[in-house]
Amino acid sequence: MKLYYSPGACSLSPHIALLEAGLPYDLVKVDLRAKTLENGDDYLKINPKGQVPALGLPSGEIVTEGPVIVQMIADQARDKGLAPARDSGERYKLLEWLNFITSELHKNFGPMFSPVLADDAKAFFKDRVMGKFKYIDSQLAGRDYLMGSQFTVADGYLFTILTWAERMKFDLSGMPNLVAYKTRVAARPKVQEALTKEGLMKAG
After folding, report:
1. Please, what is the Cα angle at 187 between 95 and 79, to 5 degrees?
2. Starting at the edge strand that comes first in sequence, how are the strands of the sheet with 36-37 ordered?
3. How far apart are CA 115 and CA 124, in angstroms?
4. Which residue among 54, 76, 98, 189 is least enclosed by CB atoms within 10 Å?
């Protein structure tokens, strides 16, 4: 498999998943502004959406959208417990978390990365995200991870978002469960390995 990624982008989530799953893969770096690969090839020919992540399968098929990719990875390494069994009640809970992270956190972060958006507009999106973080903090009470005691692909995704919050100097000190959670996930050897391979150890 080939993971098309950009350092520190949302592609960090499937990168963590691949390492936690113990699956073989190649990393292919993408310049998101130029839409090119390191060798100069046109990334849009691989993924017309022009975004990361994209996962190239041995069949030649390309799969996009992080929440889909991480489930595909988890289902190829079921013994690792990265996702509950398909069609189980717990699997739908995982889907709930993946959808919440992608729609309520990920999409609200997007405008804050914009170089042209006014500061007051960015403050609006930051307030929205902080409200979502407070909800997650409440849900993490008494839990090691989002689904309980077991690390899942949803945790790799949330951790990726939390590295963005750190980069943007969000003050999460009033959310002790979330702060402890981020430290716990960051300490996982495979998470450290993903951060190292992407040159992001300071973000961890």
Report:
1. 50
2. 36-37, 26-31, 2-5, 54-56, 62-64
3. 15
4. 189
0.90 cut: is pTM over it? yes
Instruction: Give the other-Cβ count within 10 Å of 181's Cβ.
Output: 22
Rounded distance between C-alpha atoms, residue 81 and residue 91, angstroms: 11
In the three-class reduction of DSSP (H, G, I as helix; E, B as strand; rest coil), residue 11 is classed as coil
pLDDT at 122 over 80: yes
Classified as helix, coil or strand, 138 is helix
User: Is the pLDDT at 107 greater than 60, yes or no?
Assistant: yes
> What kind and span of H or E run contains 156?
helix 153-167
Structure tokens of 146? 């989002």
Contacts of residue 57, defined as CB under 8 A and 6 or more positions apart, other chains included, come to 1, 63
CA distance 3 to 180: 29
Residue 148 DSSP class:
B
Task: Check if the beta carbon of residue 153 is closer than 8 Å to that of residue 17.
Answer: yes
Q: What share of the chain is helix, strand, coil (3-state, %, to 5)?
A: 55, 10, 35
Per residue in 4-16, pLDDT (tens digit) is 999 999 999 999 9
Q: 107 CB contacts (<8 Å, ≥6 apart)?
A: none
